[in-house]
């Protein structure tokens, strides 16, 4: 059973960089052909895909967030990390990490529980 767990600060000040880590257990982040994604849900809004890092280490970003987003990984710890720079209150959301297999019609099969991040001074 694959499990994902997000961790990081729940409160970030405007203009700072938000950093979250997803720790994966029960499966390796280098296993073919999974993509490890960050997805967020602002209050009262739908899910927004932010980006992903592939089993190969390649990264993919939402065009709307690409200039502020960086996703990296530590294979020795089986973790991947999201960094979102220059945050504003509009970045307040529940942030999820998830595993995706894009060959499947329902690609997201495992999710973290989500972590609330509030951007406020």
What does this structure look like?
The structure is a single chain. The protein is an all-beta fold. 0% of the residues lie in helices and 50% in strands. It is built from no helices and eleven strands. Strands 2, 4, 5, 6, 9, 10 and 11 form a seven-stranded mixed beta sheet that branches. A hairpin with a 6-residue loop joins strand 4 and strand 5 (48-54). It starts with a strand and ends with a strand.
> Which blocks of ≥5 consecutive residues have pLDDT under 50?
none
How far from one another are the termini? 39 Å
Major sheet description: 7 strands, mixed
Percent of residues in helices comes to: under 10%
H and E string: EEEEEEEEEEE
Mean pLDDT: 96
Categorize the overall geometry.
Answer: globular
Keywords:
121 residues; mainly beta; four-stranded antiparallel β-sheet; 0% helix
List the helices and strands and how they pair.
Blueprint: E1 3-7, E2 11-12, E3 18-25, E4 35-41, E5 48-54, E6 59-61, E7 69-74, E8 79-84, E9 93-100, E10 108-111, E11 115-119
Parallel strand pairs: 2-11
Antiparallel strand pairs: 1-3, 3-8, 4-5, 4-9, 5-6, 7-8, 9-10, 9-11
């Amino acid at each position: 059973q694959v499990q994902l767990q997000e961790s990081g600060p729940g409160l970030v000040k405007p203009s700072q960089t938000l950093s979250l880590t997803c720790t994966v257990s029960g499966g390796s982040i280098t296993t073919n052909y999974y993509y490890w994604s960050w997805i967020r849900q602002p209050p009262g809004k739908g899910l927004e895909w932010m980006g992903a890092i592939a089993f190969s280490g390649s990264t993919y970003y939402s065009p709307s967030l690409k200039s502020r987003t960086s996703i990296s990984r530590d294979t020795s710890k089986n973790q991947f990390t999201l960094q979102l720079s220059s945050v504003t209150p509009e970045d307040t959301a529940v942030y999820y990490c998830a595993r995706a297999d894009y060959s499947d019609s329902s690609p997201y099969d495992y999710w973290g529980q989500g972590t609330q991040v509030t951007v406020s001074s």
